[in-house]
Specification:
With 126 residues, this protein is mostly beta strands. Helices cover 0% and strands 44% of the residues. Strands 2, 4, 5, 6, 9, 10 and 11 form a seven-stranded mixed β-sheet that branches.
């Protein structure tokens, strides 16, 4: 299992922005599919976005399309989730996840991934 570390969460007002980071210190994430998930209290874990390991493909939940952007910084071995126009319903713990490319499944679904970070809290409130 990979050791993943998320950072960048915090408290932000509606309409504001945050950038989350997902990093691994001992392996390169270039070869992994990376996903971002979130879970609010009392709700199921939801796939937010994911990015392919080689084809550069990205996927987004309908609820965040046009507001969130996933990207890689290969030099820093880091994957980002830029979150703009934040809404109160975006409040959740956000997790990053990693998995070598599979021949099956969707990277917006939790079973795709075998490695998970510890989570970072995002709170959108006035």
């Amino acid at each position: 299992q990979l050791q993943l570390v998320e950072s960048g969460g915090g408290l932000v007002q509606p309409g504001g922005s945050l950038r989350l980071s997902c990093a691994a210190s001992e392996v390169t994430l270039d070869y992994y599919v990376i996903g971002w998930f979130r879970q609010a209290p009392g709700k199921e874990r939801e796939g937010v976005s994911c990015i392919g390991s080689s084809d550069g493909s990205t996927n987004y939940a309908d609820s965040v399309k046009g507001r969130f952007t996933i990207s890689r910084d290969y030099a820093k071995n880091t994957v980002y989730l830029q979150m703009n126009s934040l809404k109160p319903e975006d409040t959740a713990i956000y997790y990053c996840a990693a998995e070598p490319p599979r021949s099956w499944g969707s990277c917006l679904k939790s079973p795709y991934f075998g490695s998970w970070g510890q989570g970072t809290q995002v709170t959108v409130s006035s």
